[in-house]
């Protein structure tokens, strides 16, 4: 079943047909949202919110763009709205989980995968990249996510964002420059 048929069936009263669209685009939307939202739980919530909004607004989809482009726009806006709310929120208190009396002397077996040093180094690098991405204005972060994570062409990004190709090229160039400068400063601070 193609997108048009699934949309037609949903509009005709078959809500289960929307599952075809969720199955088809769920992973892509999840990758997209994770490019905007770093917290895994918040990202999952934003993906669900995006699909719920798309389902409830399906009557507004006019077919001038692809369904994915329309869905992308909803997911990107949902993600950016989430980030704006988070910036306004006071930081949460972090409490270490308390251990039971019986667990005091217990030793956990080593976890499979990279060594603790490798894991810490990878997390530190990823943290710096995330911090640099988070510092970018939304318009710059958006084009980088679409290009580098989603792998969209400049023309596809232009259509999705409803801006000219030149604007896309300019934003990507400026986003990369700011990202490079920010990562350079973070690396210098770490030394």
What does this structure look like?
- The protein has 191 residues and is mainly α.
- The chain folds into two domains: 1-88, RNA polymerase sigma factor, region 2, helix turn helix motif (Rna Polymerase Sigma Factor, Chain: A), CATH 1.10.1740.10; 116-191, Winged helix-like DNA-binding domain superfamily/Winged helix DNA-binding domain (Arc Repressor Mutant, subunit A, Orthogonal Bundle).
- Helix content is 70%, strand content 0%.
- It has eight helices and no strands.
- It has helices spanning 3-11, 18-36, 40-56, 67-88, 116-135, 138-149, 154-161, 165-190.
- The longest helix has 26 residues, at 165-190.
SSE class: mainly alpha
Mean pLDDT: 80
Low-confidence stretches: 93-109
Helix content: 55-70%
Query: Would you identify the CATH H-level superfamily of the largest domain?
Result: RNA polymerase sigma factor, region 2, helix turn helix motif
Briefly, what CATH class of the largest domain? Mainly Alpha
Domains, number: 2
Give me the number of helical elements.
8
Q: Mind summarizing the main beta sheet? A: none
Gross morphology is: elongated
Could you give the distance between the termini?
55 Å
Radius of gyration: 21 Å
Query: What fraction strand?
Result: under 5%
CATH architecture of the largest domain: Orthogonal Bundle
Order of helices and strands: HHHHHHHH
CATH topology of the largest domain: Rna Polymerase Sigma Factor, Chain: A
């Amino acid at each position: 079943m193609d997108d048009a048929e699934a949309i037609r069936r949903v509009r005709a009263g078959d809500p289960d047909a929307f599952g075809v669209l969720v199955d088809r685009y769920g992973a892509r939307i999840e990758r997209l949202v994770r490019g905007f939202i770093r917290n895994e739980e918040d990202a999952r919530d934003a993906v669900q919110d995006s699909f719920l909004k798309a389902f409830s607004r399906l009557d507004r989809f006019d077919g001038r763009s692809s369904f994915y482009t329309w869905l992308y726009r909803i997911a990107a806006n949902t993600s950016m709205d989430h980030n704006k709310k988070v910036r306004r929120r006071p930081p949460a208190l972090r409490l270490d989980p308390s251990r039971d009396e019986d667990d005091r002397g217990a030793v956990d077996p080593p976890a499979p995968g990279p060594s603790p040093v490798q894991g810490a180094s990878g997390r530190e690098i990823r943290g710096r990249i995330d911090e640099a991405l988070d510092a970018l204005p939304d318009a710059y972060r958006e084009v980088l996510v679409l290009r580098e994570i989603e792998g969209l062409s400049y023309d596809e990004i232009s259509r999705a964002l409803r801006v000219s190709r030149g604007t896309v090229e300019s934003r990507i160039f400026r986003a990369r420059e700011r990202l490079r400068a920010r990562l350079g400063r973070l690396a210098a601070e770490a030394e």
